[in-house]
Task: inverse folding
């Protein structure tokens, strides 16, 4: 149960109140930003919450036990701290939000109502709505390892151990042409066709610097490779924009051995029996009930 400041409790119990809502958002890049539905800036928990036109929130919904609760916050993209470009680049994805009730006449009187994580963000013109997911939704995420023929490590992480700074696995290039769903660069010598399929493309400069997307497919173009992206860029990239492309991995043992020479660190279980073996059973008509393997 939340502990309320006695002075704030007394204010709420009064006949007239001066209450406002404040949201402090902490993005994964370390940026902390504050917003309020009041018409003046309010300093809450060491963060200055700026007025945001038409910012409003729906009622919070909670379920029994550890059921995931949630709500939404919506408004207009009119604050200098809340830009269309940042939303497009995913800088607000999975950001943590603290929701406060504040006495705007005395901002030291606050009550932390809930903590949440930003989920899906929807936009329509200059308006947006963001889903606020209760922290209990983290309990629904996968924990531990999954046994699979494929590797469950991420390329370059502490289990994979591949050094992605090696020029064999990533390189920088200049954009020659692009559209929201694809990017073309000049020739990339020293790399096999399809080397970057399943990899990652990151924009290094320009208006959407920091945007990244997985590469769905690398195809050979007349003037250089063409990278089809799973997530379209917010806008076409200007010619000359620097990008970084990283090699792809299909997480199979053969690829780990031939492409990365890293099969000793392979984090999958390639010799697991398949469905045919699991579903097999002794059959008197086979004439092979002699203790030999059921599946060759």
Result:
């Amino acid at each position: 149960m939340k502990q309320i400041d006695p002075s704030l409790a007394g204010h709420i119990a009064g006949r007239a109140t001066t209450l406002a809502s404040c949201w402090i958002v902490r993005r994964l890049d370390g940026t902390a930003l504050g917003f309020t539905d009041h018409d003046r800036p309010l300093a809450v928990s060491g963060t200055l919450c700026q007025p945001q036109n038409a910012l409003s929130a729906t009622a919070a919904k909670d379920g029994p036990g550890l059921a995931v609760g949630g709500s939404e916050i919506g408004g207009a993209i009119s604050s200098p701290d809340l830009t269309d470009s940042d939303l497009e680049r995913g800088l607000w994805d999975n950001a943590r939000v603290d929701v406060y009730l504040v006495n705007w006449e005395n901002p030291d009187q606050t009550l932390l109502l809930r903590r949440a994580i930003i989920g899906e963000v929807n936009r329509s013109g200059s308006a947006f709505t963001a889903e606020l997911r209760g922290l209990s939704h983290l309990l629904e995420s996968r924990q531990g390892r999954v046994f699979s023929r494929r590797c469950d490590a991420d390329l370059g992480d502490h289990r994979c151990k591949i050094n992605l700074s090696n020029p064999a696995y990533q390189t920088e290039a200049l954009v020659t042409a692009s559209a929201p769903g694809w990017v073309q660069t000049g020739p990339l010598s020293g790399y096999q066709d399809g080397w970057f399929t399943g990899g990652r493309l990151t924009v290094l400069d320009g208006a959407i610097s920091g945007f990244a997307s997985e590469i769905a497919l690398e195809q050979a173009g007349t003037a250089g490779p063409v990278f089809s992206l799973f997530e379209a860029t917010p806008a076409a990239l200007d010619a000359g924009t620097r990008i970084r492309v990283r090699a792809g991995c299909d997480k199979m043992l053969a690829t780990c051995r031939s492409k990365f020479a890293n099969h000793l660190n392979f984090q999958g279980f390639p010799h697991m029996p398949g469905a045919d073996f699991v579903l097999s059973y002794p059959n008197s008509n086979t004439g092979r009930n002699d203790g030999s393997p059921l599946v060759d």
